[in-house]
Amino acid sequence: KVLCFYTGTEEVEEERIIGKEDGFFISWKPQSGDVISYVVDWCEPHQDLFCNLQWKKLGPNTTFSLISSDTFRPGVRYNFRIYGISTKKTAYLLEYKTGYSQELAPLDSPQVAIANLTSRSFAMTWKDYSTESQPGFIQGYRVYLKARARQCHPGFEKVVLSGTIYLFLYSFELLLFRGITKATI
């Protein structure tokens, strides 16, 4: 029997990890003192609200493990927690890691609103949306502007901001952290 001790006040930062075909390589800092083993747990999400909690117990001299499963799916975010088990059979949360076995392009782009339009500037805003539900990490955004005299490339949607500026909404990009690649929508 192991007691889990986590009050929610510990300073445990989330670290992003990148999965590979054979699973997730997870490593952590060695703990000194009374750690007699480590446990890595993760949840395999299902369609309903429940998840299939999985764990792997490792020895006290181990500081890494390959976590593999036939059920890891592309575009699904997995959260891993690493616990140290003390001699008193108490589990302490040491590290928290999150990643995708394979990142996919975003499902949708934010709904953009333009305000405070002048001949030289404008404000662009959009509502925050859940990054947990996205099939990859959102790294940032790009906005492209083009002078009116230029032609718009086929497939781009023009929105007139003023007499001299068009905003090409189709070229609004969501960049995803996917190794060295990026996805555009």
From TrEMBL:
Protein's UniProt keywords contain Glycoprotein: yes
Domain Fibronectin type-III: 21-88
Predominant place of localization: membrane
Keywords carried by this UniProt record: Glycoprotein, Membrane, Receptor, Repeat, Signal, Transmembrane, Transmembrane helix
UniProt xrefs under Pfam families: fn3 (PF00041)
Cell compartment(s), UniProt: Membrane
CDD domains noted in UniProt: FN3 (cd00063)
InterPro entries given in the database record: FN3_dom (IPR003961), FN3_sf (IPR036116), Ig-like_fold (IPR013783), Type1_Cytokine_Rcpt_Type2 (IPR052672)
Topology within the bilayer: Single-pass type I membrane protein
Keyword set includes Signal: yes
Entry's transmembrane regions: 159-177
Name assigned to this protein: Fibronectin type-III domain-containing protein
Annotated organism of origin: Sciurus vulgaris (Eurasian red squirrel)
